[in-house]
Amino acid sequence: MANATWVKVAPISKLPEGKMLGIEIGDLEIAVYHVDGQYYATENVCTHALALLTDGILDGDVVECPLHAGCFNVKTGAGMGDPITEDLRTYRVRVESDTIEVEIPAAS
Questions:
Q1: Measured CA distances, 48 to 6, 20, 23, 72 (Å)
Q2: Domain holding 55: CATH number?
Q3: I need a surface site. Which of 9, 28, 40, 63 has the fewest CB within 10 A?
Q4: pLDDT at 1 (0 to 100)
Q5: Shortest CA distance to 79 belongs to which of 64, 91, 57?
Q6: Which letter, b or e, does each residue of 45-76 get, where b requires 16 or more Cβ atoms within 10 Å of its Cβ?
Q7: Residues 101 and 7 sit within 8 Å (Cβ to Cβ)
Q8: Stated pTM of the model
Q9: Number of helices and strands in the chain (H, E)
Q10: Residue 52 DSSP one-character state
């Protein structure tokens, strides 16, 4: 991704397996998940009703919105049925020197 920026999010010790963490980077609300030994990131705001997904429940690789129980696959951002009609944006994640980093695209 041209002109993207890698942003340090947290040390890996702050995000144990099976947990999620909500962060703000500029005007972006991002959720970072630790699932199946890997880290994933999506937008943190439900596409259906503007709730923070990190206020919901993470079960395996599925996050459930706290408002209307809409579910998303955290690995792909895909909505998993009603009431979800729009997938989540996803972000690339890497670990550098025991620190989780998320790739943020350049502003257009």
A1: 28, 20, 20, 11
A2: 2.102.10.10
A3: 28
A4: 47
A5: 64
A6: bbbbeebebbebebeeebbbbbbeebbbbbee
A7: yes
A8: 0.93
A9: 0, 10
A10: B
Tokens of 86: 């729009």
* Number of domains present in the structure of the chain: 1
Query: Residue 30 belongs to what H/E stretch?
Result: strand 28-35
Q: Residue 40 is part of which domain span?
A: 5-104
Token readout for 64 is 């459930």
pLDDT in tens, 42-99: 999 999 888 999 999 999 999 999 999 999 999 999 999 899 999 999 999 999 999 9
Could you give the 3-state DSSP secondary structure of residue 53? helix
Outline where the chain has alpha helix (H): none
Strand partners, 33: 20, 40
Amino acid identity at 54: T
The rounded distance, in Å, linking the Cα atoms of 71 and 24 is 21
Sheet with 57-59, edge to edge strand ranges: 57-59, 62-64, 71-73
What pairs with residue 5 in β-bridges?
A: 104
